[in-house]
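Hello forum,

I keep getting stuck at the same step: I have a sequence, I want structure tokens, and every attempt I make locally crashes halfway through. Rather than fight my setup again tonight, could one of you with a working pipeline run this one for me? It's a single chain of 337 residues.
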Amino acid sequence: MASILFLGASGQVGGAFLSVFRTVHPQTPITAYLRSTILDEALTALGNVTIIHGTFEEYDRIKQLAATHDIIINCAASFNPPLTTVILEGIKNTKATTAPKKPILLHLSGAGNFVDHSKTGEYVPKEHQFNDSNPDDVRKIDASYPPNGATDGLIFAAAAEGKVNALFVCPGGIYGQSTDHIGVSIGAAAAKAAGVWVLWSLNNVKTLGFSPYVGPGTSIFRLVHVDDVVSLMMLVYQRALDTWDAYKPEDVYSHFYLCVDEAPESKKVAEAFGELLYREGKIASPVPKQVPYGEAGITAGYSAGNLIVEAVKAKELGWEPRAPKRFFETLRESHYD
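Reply #2:
Ran it on my machine without issues. Output:
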């Protein structure tokens, strides 16, 4: 039976994915590599899980683990080229014996790659938006597509060389907390994670002392609930199994799956963030403030620019977003620690 090396068990997506995965694949052996010990009991309860504690800087260790597993699922580090390099080096020297073909790498990337870098805060439709069903569009992804493109590019290159069967799930801004997260039963903080994009944005508002928006605030950023990311990952995992024997190197450009749902305007998002942090006593007013791009803080590129993409490939797999709660409802019920 194929074995899995899993990175990101304590994360917003990874912790939920493992729980859902185990209900569908109860016997698949999993090695969970993570730093924290808090989730050890919950991971053990999943059954057939080996826990290895370590950091992402222990390159030799990670390389060895990647070389001895058939499938690597990385939900932990979408913009960490050194870690990805080590994983790929391990894969290229694989010692796994149960795989019928090459090892599989299922990688969680991010749609921030496709923000248009506008600084106006206006909705700016694109004549040609990125299309994940067009291999020629996917082929262009490299380090010039920050923040995840450098890592994605390494994986594309390895797959195109025939070293690995690589598949990507590429979500927009992830929000929400999953009731499926393995840490829920013990009240772990990891199960309450806001998500990278939400936390960046809230921290930015707290630092500035107000919730900023740029220009008219009509620019859009695509969002998706964590449970919908997990459901697409499950579909893509099954796709990886179904294509294991037939996967050819050039197929990597046809296995990039955008995962997006809502498309709120930036001013409305700023209002929601402002209301949350005002309610928590972190800022003096809930009213968002219109500012020039240069005064909008570290998330200005996401709030002033547009992320205009569609989940074409995901829909082809039968994926449909079914978020238990929408973004604004989630924020109204959220807290900021």
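The two ends are 43 Å apart (CA to CA). If your local run keeps crashing, start a new thread with the error log.
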